[in-house]
Amino acid sequence: MAKRIEVSGLHAYYGGVHAIEDISMTVEPRSVTAFIGPSGCGKSTFLRTLNRMHEVIPGARVQGKVMLDDEDLYASSVDPVAVRRVVGMVFQRPNPFPTMSIYDNVAAGLKLNGVRRKSRLDEIVEESLQGANLWNEVKDRLTKPGAGLSGGQQQRLCIARAIAVQPQVLLMDEPCSALDPISTLAIEDLIAKLKSQYTIVIVTHNMQQAARVSDRTAFFNIAGTGQPGRLIEIDDTSKIFTNPEQKATEDYITGRFG
Amino acid sequence: MSSETGVETAAGARHRATGRRMSTGRAGDKIFVSAARGSGILVLAIMAAIAIFLVWKAVPALQDNDANFLTSEDWNPNATPPKFGIAQLAFGTVVSSLLALIIATPVAIGIALFIAFYSPRRLASPLGYVVDLLAAVPSIVYGLWGLLLLAGNMEGVSKFLNTVLGWIPLFGGDSPGRNSIFTASVVLAIMILPIISSLSREVFVQVPRANVEAALALGATRWETIRMAVLPYGRSGMIGASMLGLGRAMGETIAVAMVLTFVPGINVHILEDGGSTFAANIAKSFGEASTTGRGALIASGLVLFVITLIVNMAARAVVARRKEFV
């Protein structure tokens, strides 16, 4: 189910603004890779190029190559809609569909994929909610609106919605930044559990979080305002946090800037 | 509670500290308050005066009426004894407006969706202007257009509908014509299109970006995104918009008066010539009406007022429910 991502020479633009420059990296399957770096360094932009969500912003475009195993996501024959069905995403702010029940939120992606049989839907919805450690909290109120849950529960609902379609890769854009510490812990436990099945990429501003959840860490930085973001280094998390190759990485993780 | 008091205390201290500057706006405030209150009271007073005047004029005619005002299909207030009832007018008003709504709503929502999601950005705002411009065309122009151009061309459509859908009583009858309720409905539909379209567009534009992205990230196509995130979110807004359109269609006078040919009595076959509405009937009959005739027309106008009020209040209730939800 999990696939390897291989990025080479990737640039992304917003209109005339060069947002990220020449990024190359490999993300191993069944691992957690964390992106850290100061605000505006292009971590989120880069994350969104991995499921072709970058281009939904008017004027945004991408250059370079993203391989998912042996398929180029940016090949002209590839439909971005198909890419997003195999590369799931969880956003910074929990965004369940406000007009849908808990059940319908989880089933939304399945219905897009043509799953119609009630028994099959029931099964996958339960599986996904259990996978997101939410089932016990919501099993008695599946028909209630998803927006009525707490922030942490909503975010786990969004994770359940993303994994219900069994993606190859799960992208998480600062999934805990709008949550309290208890909910954050719940999500981090969940990430550790999901790692056995999915390739996970997580953007975070919280360095302790990166240290706790990830196997590999990538540090992004910008040379100055208006400059494109770059990948400074990517390595095993333990190495990045104890003995990074680059001076800038060390300065950032020791809190000398950022 | 305690926190509010705390805030007040702090604010009070700040007011005392800047006491002199606080007083500078006082005169302006007073003038503004009394001007605003005065305008509010004036509006209510004018409304009350109009209502009292209308009722005062209508009551004598209603007392002289020899027929049931609510159920009679006759409209002979100038006869002796006067016989008039609003049944035909109510039928014509409600049917033509509802039909206009059924024709206009899908088209209007289609236009709104196109402008909000499909059209290239450069085209979107000019297109919006053009649709809004439809609302600025005077209704007499629509009436002329309906009478001179549309009515002539409606005959074929009417005959076709009569042949295909004739088994439905509304589309039945033997002689589908030009100056029918159906033709009036088409004119009305075009007239209410802009209001429904521009209100729906506003609602669609307000759909949170996060909802749209959530759908896209699940691998929804553009249409699936609209169905999943946009239409459910905008549902009550669209209902409110159509109800406001319905209110407008019910009150429309001159365009309908010009299109319809008056034939007495309710005719459920809306493809045939004839039919009338409250507003059109007032416009057509007021000139040659006697005192009782005028009173009768005013009474019918009051009924229209009540119907429109109910529709508008229902629309506002639906729109207001949206606010709680988000």
Question: How would you summarize this macromolecular structure in one to three sentences?
Answer:
By secondary structure, chain A is an alpha/beta fold. Chain A has helices at about 45-50, 80-85, 100-110, 120-130, 135-140, 150-165, 180-195, 205-215, 235-240, 245-255; strands at about 5-15, 15-25, 30-35, 60-70, 70, 85-90, 170-175, 200-205, 215-220, 230-235. In chain A, helix 3 runs parallel beside helix 6 (about 150-165).
Structure in words:
The complex is a heterodimer of chains A (258) and B (326). Chain A has a domain at 5-94 and 171-253: Rossmann fold, CATH 3.40.50. Helix content of chain A is 35%, strand content 26%. Chain A is built from ten helices and ten strands. Chain A has helices at 43-49, 80-86, 102-112, 118-131, 135-138, 151-164, 181-194, 207-213, 237-242, 247-253, and strands at 5-14, 17-27, 32-36, 60-68, 71-72, 87-90, 169-173, 199-203, 216-222, 229-236. In chain A, the strands form two sheets. A six-stranded mixed beta sheet of chain A has the order 6-7-8-3-9-10, with helices on both faces. In chain A, strands 2-1-4-5 form a four-stranded antiparallel beta sheet, covered by helices on one side. The longest helix of chain A is centred in the middle third of the chain and has 14 residues, at 118-131. The mean pLDDT of chain A is 91. Chain B has 326 residues and is mainly α. Helices cover 76% and strands 1% of the residues of chain B. In chain B, a hairpin with a 6-residue loop joins strand 1 (75-76) and strand 2 (83-84). Chain A binds chain B through residues 51, 53, 56, 58, 81-86, 88-89, 91, 93, 95-100, 108-109, 112-113, 158, 161-162, 165, and chain B through 121, 208, 210-211, 213-221, 224, 228-229, 232-233, 235, 325-326. Chain A: This is Phosphate ABC transporter ATP-binding protein PstB. Chain A: GO terms for molecular function: ATP binding. Chain A: Residues 5-247 form the ABC transporter domain. Chain A: Keywords: ATP-binding, Nucleotide-binding, Translocase, Transport. Chain A: InterPro entries: AAA+_ATPase, ABC_transporter-like_ATP-bd, ABC_transporter-like_CS, P-loop_NTPase, PstB-like.
